[in-house]
Design brief:
Length: 431
């Protein structure tokens, strides 16, 4: 093996971040993004894996309709994604890259790649708009920092490629689709990419490290979650002349929503339920024969979340029977709960000592999780196998909160994050 690559630079990381920011794509439809990542990795002498082996088909959740996927793939091709990579992907986004595929896998890192269904701000004070790298796609933007995560992942790949001859174990990089809505990690985990791993690492810009030079070495307390859609189908009828002949889907959905929100909370930890949207009916004088709800439950532990979801399912099924409805419940996403391990928290803190960006007085060993994160699925999987896992929060000032139209972060955090992750990986490789 040789070491032909120069070290990554801040300028290159910034350019990569802005490139992926412009080409924001929705979860599970990140065709241009996946192809461009594959190109970058291949140029490093790596052999990225794409296509159906990346994620187990029966474990995928929240997949867009076929016509949506075809349109997204066509758009990616129009924007320059190589047809060879699109063909190899065969409709499946995300990829896996091994630094030393000839050695046993040891450390696995996850980098999420999807954008959000959020309209990006066009205000002149919003830096992406002002400096010309705002999203090309109306209604889609990187409002959570995943564009930065991609750049960090590619920077780390380059840094590890320069020292691959020194590695004693394989390092695996997962570029995961569909983190938003917790849709992509379970299928990648089910496909076996964590098998044999001793360490798992995920990282996120901002969150509770929302100041420059801050660092959370290991988050704890992410909520497990289940995302699901509920469709009620009843019978339409004339609301004035023959209402008795109808079976009202709107009332069924409203009753289910109220009763789900009335569930008693669990005494062993946080438990939540949300009906986020409810759309029903076709007119004021028609008994509604169709209703769709988008819902989620969350829990401090996977068991608590399961308690909430199963009670919601029971309410939905009994409500459907009461209102003479055909009911369809579809799982759209989900994640486990997981906590960072003390062993890796100590490794992270030590690795940060040689990265000047992170100031000791702003480094926290741990902080609470930020809602739910798909990384908890592989975290829990590695921990179940006897390994350890950690979730870092990388310090950067934020222009606005996560998922806001004017979200932005300080790009100066990119190079220090690459350096930090490299230090962690090399320390684990020597352990």
């Amino acid at each position: 093996m040789t070491e032909p690559h120069s070290p990554i630079t801040q300028e290159r990381l910034t350019a990569l971040r802005r490139l992926f920011h412009r080409h924001a794509e929705a979860g599970m439809a990140e065709f241009w993004t996946t192809a461009r990542i594959a190109e970058e990795l291949e140029a490093l002498g790596l052999s990225p894996v794409v296509g159906e082996t990346v994620s187990l088909p029966e474990a995928r959740m929240g997949m867009p309709d076929d016509d949506v996927l075809r349109a997204a793939e066509a758009q990616a091709a129009e924007e320059g994604a190589p047809q060879a990579w699109l063909a190899r992907m065969n409709g499946v986004t995300g990829l896996v890259a091994d630094i030393r595929p000839d050695l046993p896998v040891h450390t696995v890192l996850r980098f999420d790649i999807d954008a959000l269904n959020v309209q990006e701000s066009h205000a002149p004070e919003h830096r992406p708009a002002r400096e010309g790298f705002a999203s090309l796609h109306e209604g889609l933007c990187h409002a959570c920092g995943h564009d930065g995560h991609i750049a960090i992942g590619l920077g780390l790949a380059r840094e590890l490629a320069t020292v691959r001859d020194r590695l004693r174990h394989n390092v695996r990089l997962l570029f995961q689709p569909g983190e938003e809505g917790c849709r992509g990690a379970r299928a990648m985990t089910a496909a076996g990419w964590l098998a044999g791993a001793r360490h798992f690492i995920a990282a996120h810009i901002g969150m509770h490290a929302d100041n420059d030079h801050a660092l959370v070495c290991g988050a704890r307390g992410f909520l497990a979650t289940t995302k699901f859609d509920v469709e009620f189908t009843g019978r339409a009828a004339h609301a004035g002349a023959e209402p008795q002949k109808g079976a009202n889907s709107l009332l069924a959905a409203a009753s289910a929503a109220l009763n789900m929100h009335a569930l008693p909370r669990h005494g062993d930890g946080d438990s939540r339920v949300t009906v986020g949207t409810l759309n029903a009916g076709s007119g004021r004088n028609v008994i509604a024969d169709h209703a769709l709800m988008t819902c989620e439950t969350r829990g401090a532990t996977t068991a608590i979340n399961d308690y909430m979801f199963e009670h919601c399912r029971s309410i939905i099924e009994h409500t459907a029977a009461m209102y003479e409805q055909h009911c369809r419940l579809r799982l759209m996403g989900g994640s486990d709960s997981a906590d960072s391990d003390d062993t890796l928290i100590r490794v992270v803190r030590e690795a940060a000592r040689s990265v000047p960006w992170f100031h000791d007085e702003l480094i926290l060993d741990t902080a609470s999780g930020y809602g739910s994160d798909d990384a908890c699925v592989p975290m829990a999987a590695v921990q179940k196998m006897g390994g350890d896992a950690v979730y870092l929060m990388l310090g950067s000032r934020l222009a606005a909160g996560h998922h806001a139209p004017d979200f932005d972060f300080n790009e100066d955090v990119l190079l220090p994050s690459v350096q930090l992750l490299k230090n962690i990986v090399l320390a684990l490789d020597e352990a």
